[in-house]
Design goal:
CATH class: Mainly Beta
Shape: globular
Distance between the termini: 18 Å
Largest sheet: 5 strands, mixed, barrel
CATH superfamily: Nucleic acid-binding proteins
Structural class: alpha/beta
CATH architecture: Beta Barrel
CATH topology: OB fold (Dihydrolipoamide Acetyltransferase, E2P)
Strand order of the largest sheet: 2-3-4-6-5
Length: 108
């Protein structure tokens, strides 16, 4: 995978909260890497595995939702809430959470 832009998770979430259009111009379609705290691990309605990562603060409105392929599902299944992880993927945009596709776990 090509080099990813290192982004502080607080800055990414703050930018999308402050101005979605500006955040999309800066991040949408770009490969990023960020570190945060696992908030949830689930499957969506299409049975796609995803990990929700935030700053670790309670009651966060926005978080990063990282979609992983089935090849990485076993790695993701080992994650627990509250664990720090570094993820890398391509920003898709905002839909409640900041969506990141083709995610891989860089550091566990």
């Amino acid at each position: 995978m090509p080099d990813a832009k290192q982004v502080e998770i607080r800055a990414l979430l703050a930018e999308y909260t402050d101005n979605e259009v500006r955040a999309d111009a800066a991040f949408k379609g770009k490969l990023i890497q960020t570190t945060g705290v696992v908030d949830d691990v689930k499957r969506d309605v299409l049975n796609t595995v995803y990990v929700v990562v935030g700053t670790g603060k309670q009651y966060e409105v926005r978080r990063v939702q990282c979609f992983v392929d089935e090849d990485n599902a076993n790695t993701v299944a080992s994650l627990t809430k509250g664990r720090r992880v570094t993820i890398r993927g391509r920003v898709k945009g905002l839909m409640m959470n900041v969506l990141v596709e083709d995610c891989e776990l860089v550091e566990l």
